[in-house]
Amino acid sequence: MTLSYIGDIEFVGEVEWDGKAIVVGAATPFGHVSCRIPRETIHALPIYSDALEREIRLERHLILERLAPALRAKISISGTGEPVDLWPWEISRARPAAVASALPADQETAGRLPEAIEKVQPS
């Protein structure tokens, strides 16, 4: 599907925590996409490295906000209507500004988002 502008992607509907992943829908110019952010991806964020299920459920909107740039980037290169899972290795190499805000300033590498998608592993 390759979008020219990832701002064309909007998260819609409820942000749910099913005990294993944050689940949210995304509206794109090509239709609706179901997105999942598994627990292991959430734990890859330093601020949530040891988050309990209750904490994830309570902060699911904030977690989505932090991971939205990486999730939008992955959606923009996925197949039309294909469900998208955001994995830890897709956020670990690059630190979009929202993710980097959880890191000390000397560890930020904002603006390198496409590298996060470079070595996409099968979902």
UniProtKB/TrEMBL annotation:
Stretches for region Disordered: 102-123
Designated name of the protein: Uncharacterized protein
Organism for this UniProt entry: Bradyrhizobium zhanjiangense
